[in-house]
Amino acid sequence: MAQTLGKAEGAVYTRRLDPQESPMPGSANLNIMLKAARKAGRSLVKDFREVENLQVSMKGAGDFVSRADIAAQAILKEELLGARPTYGWLAEEEKEIDGEDPTRRWIVDPLDGTTNFLHGLPHWAISIALEHKGQIISGVVYDAAKDEMFFAEKGEGAWMNDQRIRVSGRSRMIEALFATGLPFAGRGDLPEVLQDLARISPVCAGVRRWGSAALDMAYVAAGRYEGYWERRLNAWDIAAGVIIMREAGGFAEPIDPEGNLIEDGAVICGNSNLFDAFARIIRKG
Ligand code: IPD
Ligand code: CA
Ligand code: CA
């Protein structure tokens, strides 16, 4: 048995229901988010194909990507606020808008992984979260170049296209793969990250730096690697990833155990077996 969650050109996302599972439709809000992500995804994929032709002029390519980013954000705003005009709006490329309904807000990164996009690397995503009374209740991370739609709603599990996803079951540090973010020009946290790497690299199977925080979290949720940590992020980088991680059976916490994950922008997440050992290493820093 399958339920249609929504249609886009050339794609229909369904949730395959286990015969034991009670039919639970994706909420109206989730369908709005999926539709918005696909629409913005089509616009970004079109622009992504152009980027390679522009590599000769760095300035030209940079401006083009900014325009692609802003165009994607405009599509998302029209779809999300168009459908729910009373919600608040927090998106990377513009000033926050308070909603008439103070309890709900969209948190959006129209293009996470901008540097990859600019360099023609197909590893970037659209990230959309819905917050209600300070809690993230739905999240969508869409890797449009690979057509991988990661999504979750509170209490409904986490999904990648029509497949239910779960964090990996690996429980030995030495077999575990991790990801992080490395500071780039203008960011001053390199010494901190180098200390993290000095502690974790010798005891694990490797550390990756992919360049999209939203996809890093989705990949831990899908069991592709065991954990991810990064500091100095923004709410829009991680909000959708948090619910996808948790619904996939993993942990997503602030690096400072007393902190607030969305406000601090310093996240550590991992599968349930390894989280404690992993967090001990990172939190020592
Ligand atoms: C960036 C990516 C990257 C992370 C940066 C973020 P952007 O987002 O998520 O992986 O290391 O800190 O700012 O700028 O591509 O939206
Ligand atoms: Ca981002
Ligand atoms: Ca961005």
Automatic annotation (TrEMBL):
Identify which cofactors the protein needs according to its UniProt entry. Mg(2+)
Sites binding Mg(2+) sit at E92, D109, L111, D112, D237
Q: What is the enzyme's main class?
A: hydrolase
Q: Which InterPro entries match?
A: IMPase, Inositol_monoP_metal-BS, Inositol_monophosphatase-like, Inositol_monophosphatase_SuhB
Q: What is its EC number?
A: 3.1.3.25
Enzymatic reactions: a myo-inositol phosphate + H2O = myo-inositol + phosphate
Q: Where is the stretch described as Disordered?
A: 1-26
An example GO biological process term is: signal transduction
Q: Which UniProt keywords apply?
A: Hydrolase, Magnesium, Metal-binding
A molecular function annotated in GO for this UniProt entry is:
metal ion binding
Superkingdom: Bacteria
Q: Name one Pfam family in it.
A: Inositol_P
Q: Which family does it belong to?
A: Belongs to the inositol monophosphatase superfamily.
The name this protein goes by in its record: Inositol-1-monophosphatase
User: Taxonomic lineage of this organism?
Assistant: Bacteria, Pseudomonadati, Pseudomonadota, Alphaproteobacteria, Rhodobacterales
